[in-house]
Each structure stands twice: as structure tokens, then as C-alpha cells.
Amino acid sequence: MENQNISDIIESYLKQILAESQQVEIRRAEIASQFNVVPSQINYVIKTRFTIQDGYVVQSKRGGGGYIRIEKVKLLDNLDFIDSLVAAVGDQISRHDSLSVVRSLFEAGAINRSEANIILAAINKDAINTGDRQVDEQIRAQILISILNHLRYES
Amino acid sequence: MENQNISDIIESYLKQILAESQQVEIRRAEIASQFNVVPSQINYVIKTRFTIQDGYVVQSKRGGGGYIRIEKVKLLDNLDFIDSLVAAVGDQISRHDSLSVVRSLFEAGAINRSEANIILAAINKDAINTGDRQVDEQIRAQILISILNHLRYES
DNA sequence: ATAATATTAGTCAACATTAGTCAAGAACAC
DNA sequence: GTGTTCTTGACTAATGTTGACTAATATTAT
Questions:
Q1: Which of A125, A133, B69, B105 has the CB geometry, 3.0–4.6 Å to B25, for a possible disulfide?
Q2: Statement to judge: residues A93 and A138 lie in one domain
Q3: Residue A23's domain spans which residues?
Q4: Is residue A131's beta carbon less than 7 angstroms from any atom in nucleic acid strand D?
Q5: Given a cut of 90, is residue A94 above it in pLDDT?
Q6: How many structural domains does chain B have?
Q7: Is residue B149 part of a domain?
Q8: Would the CB atoms of B117 and A142 count as touching at under 8 Å?
Q9: Which nucleotides of C are covered by protein (CB under 7 A)?
């Protein structure tokens, strides 16, 4: 309690609002000024304390009228399962192995058949083909992880 | 909630009319004056928020009695709907424009909400981020086209 | 008819206003 | 001392706003 750094204090401030509201929308510069820190510190706080694993989804817009919006989402009860698939995907994944991941999701009931087919269309050879096999495997991994993270919560 | 920019406000105004009417016809200078902006801002709003990917067709006429007419088009009436989206995607596509494509698919009934969200997860910034923007836009285009082709034969 | 003028909308580039990234250094925990 | 976390700011990117200039069309004068 005593030795809270400024990031912790900003985190508490935002979570206090989120305790009463489903979401909070801020202007980055305004909050930074309010707590007397540089604007990019707000990004740091969000990146380290409002992740999808914590149950938050963050959206933002630049330019005039820009904002950062943090939304509290309802996490599903398949988190351990998703974690294990994220670990299995890793930094890169072959096409063959990625099929297993999609099949696991389908068999677990996390996605239905047509959702599975869309994911397969997104990661097949037509979709990802840079000419460098390793790059392709990295991109495929990132896409799968992004989708897996999406499947963590109710939307 | 708080600080909407004027472009968003003008967009809302026009879409409110379009919610009750198939089309809206305006005089550029009149709307600009009504919202206290320069006339060219109306062009900006239309160019960024009423594209064909969004499901709108815009016609205009200059000179005396000139107008800008925005018409909401029913995409499903067009049998070449998927073809037109494939053409709109092209060799590369920005994240912003790709959102419009997915929204069009949803509004046309080609995909449901959870399918749309999966596609968005597959093409967002976390998923596709090689460090080279042009490469990212090319990959995003290939993924979208792969999905569009899948949807073509699915339905 | 034709030319001149008036009345609209379109384009484009400069500038303004936001947020994001990244890497260096400081502070902290062990 | 070493490794992690926090803090900072320079640089980048996305989006919005403005106005000078251009283009198209209609109206009026000859």
C-alpha cells in the first residue's frame, strides 16, 4: 500500500472507475497531465495491467476527438484450454500443426463448423504466402493467437 | 461519450436521416454552414465514412441547384457482391478499409457477428505486424480474399 | 448561339490534434 | 551486482480541420 509507484496509482484510479462502470474512456494527455507523467506512461500502464488475460479489451482512436477506451469483458471458463493452445502455437507454427489447433477448438465446442472454416481460410496457403516459410509460420502463429485471445471472452 | 469530433457528429446526423430514408440529398455549403465547418470537410466525412465498402453510393452535381446525394445500397441485391468486395480489397488494403469490408459482409448477412469478430481478430494489428506496413497490407488483402472466396463457395 | 458570370462541388496539401512505439536510463527487488 | 520493472522523451502514425485553388454546371448578357 505504502510504496505504490505512479503506475500502480493510475491503475487503481482506472480500476476504481471500472468497478462501477463497464468501460472507461480517457484522453491520454489528460490523464497523463492529471498524474503528472508523460503520455506514453499511460500506454505502459495499459499494456502491463489491462491485458486480455486480466479481462480487459482496449480500443483507441488518434486525431481530433481521439480517446483510449478500456472495456471490462466477461471471461469465459475455457481460459486454461486457450492458454494451452496459445503455448502450443508459440512463435511460429506449421500449417499442419495449425490444423490441429483449429480442430481442437472445434472439438472443444469453442467454435462451430463455419467459424472453423473461416479460420482455416485465413491461415491456408492462399492466404499466407510470403515466399519465406519461416515468416509464413510466424504470421500464422500471430493470427491464431489473436483469434485465440478473442475467444477468451464474450463479445 | 464526451469529446466527439465534428466529423463524427456530421456522420451521425447523416446516418440518422439514412436510418429512415433510403437516401439523403444535401447542399454541401448548407450542411457545412449548419455545423460551422468549411465545405471541404463534408467531402472528408463522405470520403472516410460513406464508401462503397460501407454500403453507400454517392452522387453529386455542381453548379446551380447542385447537390450531394448519399444512397444506401442493398448489397445482397448485387449477385456480384463478393466479386465487388474482392475488387475493393485488391492487392493490399489498410486496416481502416478492411474494417469496412467486414462490416459490409455482416450487414449483407454473409456472416454473423461472431464470424465477423473472428475475421477482425485475424486481420487486426496484433495478428498482422511484420514491421513493414506495405507487407502487412498485402497479407491482410490475401487473407481477406481467401476468406471471401471461401464465403463465395460456402453460400 | 456564344460568351461571360455566378453557383455550386472536388482536390490537395499544409497544419492541427490526438495516440503508439521504442529504446535509454533510473529505480527497485533480490 | 544483476535482472526486472518503471519512467521518460524523441520520434512515428493515424485522424481531423482548414483554405486556396480547380472543375463542372447553370444562368445571364450579348
A1: B69
A2: yes
A3: 6-72
A4: no
A5: yes
A6: 2
A7: yes
A8: no
A9: 6-13, 16-23, 28-29
